[in-house]
Design a protein that fits this description.
Length: 117
């Protein structure tokens, strides 16, 4: 976010799209990790990631380069449906990252050295 203060027009657009993509990826693929960190350590929660991603996609969709590269509609749709898209990614991540064991928690994958997991 700090880089946006000094970024030129093109770089600003790219940073905003990147922040939207990054927020969607983290909240979509690692929601349990975000919840754990928010509850245990006071880190930002899923609502924060949704708000940041939605806002950055919305601003980027209004940028002249979004029109030029014909991605304005995609970015606008992602802004409007960020939570729906995140939930779809949550579902995909749950099914694909199970490693064949439906009871194997993603948290155990992220913290393999923790006792009891």
């Amino acid at each position: 976010m700090t880089a946006l203060e000094k970024a030129d027009d093109r770089t600003s657009f790219l940073i905003r799209v990147h922040i939207g993509n990054h927020s969607l990826f983290l909240a979509g693929v690692f929601p349990d990790r975000i919840r754990f960190r928010a509850e245990a350590r006071g880190f930002p929660d899923l609502k924060y990631y949704e708000a940041i991603g939605r806002t950055q996609y919305r601003v980027a969709s209004d940028h002249r380069l979004a029109q030029r590269y014909a991605v304005a509609d995609v970015l606008s749709t992602l802004a409007e449906r960020f939570q729906t898209t995140r939930l779809a990614l949550n579902d995909i991540a749950d099914r694909l990252f199970s490693l064949g064991d439906a009871n194997y928690a993603l948290e155990a994958l992220l913290n393999p050295g923790k006792p009891g997991q």
